Amino acid sequence: MAFENAIITKEDDEKYGLSALYGKYNYGAKLPNLNFTIDRQLGCWLLKIYSFPDPNYDRAVLSKSLWILHYNNRNIEITLDYNFDIDSTIRPKKFHRIWKVLGLKPSSNSKAQMQNIFHLLQKSLEAYGDYDAWQSYPNYTMELQDLTNKKEE
Q: What is the DSSP string of 67-123?
C-alpha cells in the first residue's frame, strides 16, 4: 500500500464520481481543482469534501470537516477535527497534528472492519501530512484519536 497526494484527473472523476459526490455535499457546486490522497493499487482514496462553517464569523470555516474514505467500492463519511501541538519559540521544532475522528457513517459492527478503516485512515492521513498547512514543516508528526464513542464535555 502506498498512499500519495495527487491531483484529481478527469479519469479519477469519471471512475469515482467525484464531481457528483462533491456537488452532493456542497449544494451543487462544481468540483474545484482539488487534490486527494490515493492508493491507486488498492483503489482507496481520502478526500476532504466539506468544511463546517464557523458560526461566529461570516465566511470562515472551522477545522472540523467532512471527509470521504473510499474503500471496497463504498464511501465512508468521516467527520474529522484537529488541533496542533506546536513546540516553538520562534521556529517550530516540532509540528504535531492530532486528528480526532468524531464520526463515521456508515459505522461497522465488526471490530475487524473498524480496525481496517482506522488503519487505512491513519495511512492516508500520514501521506496527507501537513498538506493544508501554510507551509511545509520538516518535523511533522501526527496521531489519530478515535472519539466516535466519547461525548464532548
A: EEEEETTEEEEEEEEEEEEEEESSSEEEEEEEEEEEEEES--S-HHHHHHHHHHHHH
